[in-house]
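Bench notes, afternoon.
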Amino acid sequence: MMRIDAHQHFWYYQAQEFPWITAQMPVLRADFLPAALAPELTRHRFDASIAVQARCDMAETDFLLALARDHARIAGVIGWVDLRAADLRRRLARWEGAVKLKGFRHIVQDEPDATACLGDSAFNRGVAQVQHDGKVYELLLRAPQLGAAPAFCAAHDAHWLVLDHLGKPAIGGDGDAAWRRQLTALARLPHVVCKISGLVTETGGRAVGNADFHRYLDDALQAFGAQRLLFGSDWPVCLLAAPYERVHALIEMWAARRLSADERAAVFGDNARRVYGLSETP
């Protein structure tokens, strides 16, 4: 079994390049690099991780791939490219032969109109192109934006699509019923998988306990099944609400109660290895 943290980030912090890291997030206003993550991976018995873009710039993809070349435990990179660009194929050629480039993500949640973005013809051509190239596309949306996701995902079934952070439900808040309906609709599409990640930062300051988090994880399990769920820490963003240890323990405790040994192996690594096309050895 290969244990994989399927969602984490690295950066050299520069304020102008990370406008989403506001003054209310001082813990994130620092450099976060592989040397800082390595002890956490070792402590929690992870063999490798997937580094996901945090800036909307092609230089972000270059940066993560350079880290991946130097650090064997970075098994894959989810980069960024302007999927709406008329010269997308030329831009993608920049990374031809980059074996650790496993896919791309666009931060749709920050678009002025997420539905319009997902319906944009140029954007859809871009997603179709990266799927044609055998790359994963990762979908980042908040729960109220999920309405357009099932139709978008149904139109792109040439390769895996990954829903990040369980669709960002408001943990312990309102709107569960609508979120659950959209999650169930997405789960009907066999090429869509879901990361159980990023939950600790979605409480909106509400007082929630393990049982509250586990209820959302139960919903994810019912919708997708254990073979289409991927564990991700969302480090270092998780530090806004909880240390790595707490994030891992939250999912581990739930998995121990709900899943068989084989299912736990799937959620904590085997599914990521399959979706991202990873070798057994990082």
